[in-house]
Amino acid sequence: MEARRRKAEEWRRIQTQRAAERQRLRDYKIALARDEVAVDTTRLAPSNSYSTPDFVLRGTYRPEPFVCKDCGVAEVWTPLQQKWWFETAKGDVFTTAVRCRACRTKERVRKCAARRVHLEGLARKKSSVS
Asked: Where in this chain does the record put each Probable zinc-binding domain (predicted)?
């Protein structure tokens, strides 16, 4: 009697898992039809987190709206940009876009100038000590 009950519970558990997998597959096909881009989990950078990002669970990248933290312009992080960031550039899977393209360019120039000034200062310090 106990074996029958356990077998029935196991069968229900398996059926529930199969139904959930079928639903995920249906959702995935619908997402691809909406021009979302598929995730290749083998190309993602390793993460030391116990949780899984939403886009990995979903299986697709979808447009993510954000507001630029420098100029305040509303932008959209496109699925193709996300795919490049996570799979090619190996960005952390829990990061999101925070700056528009123009502000990213300005920030890159600012950092480059700060690095140059810092290195010139180190070179001057080294030459005056020697």
From this structure: 65-110
The pLDDT assigned to 55 comes to: 94
Number of neighbours of residue 26 by Cβ within 10 angstroms: 10
d(CA 11, CA 17): 10
What's this model's pTM, rounded to 2 decimal places? 0.68
DSSP-assigned letter for residue 48: -
Distance of CA 26 to the CA centre of its chain: 22
What is the domain partition of the chain in residue ranges?
1-33, 36-129
Beta strands in the chain (DSSP E): 37-38, 60-61, 64-67, 74-77
Q: Residue 71: how many CB atoms within 10 A of its CB?
A: 12
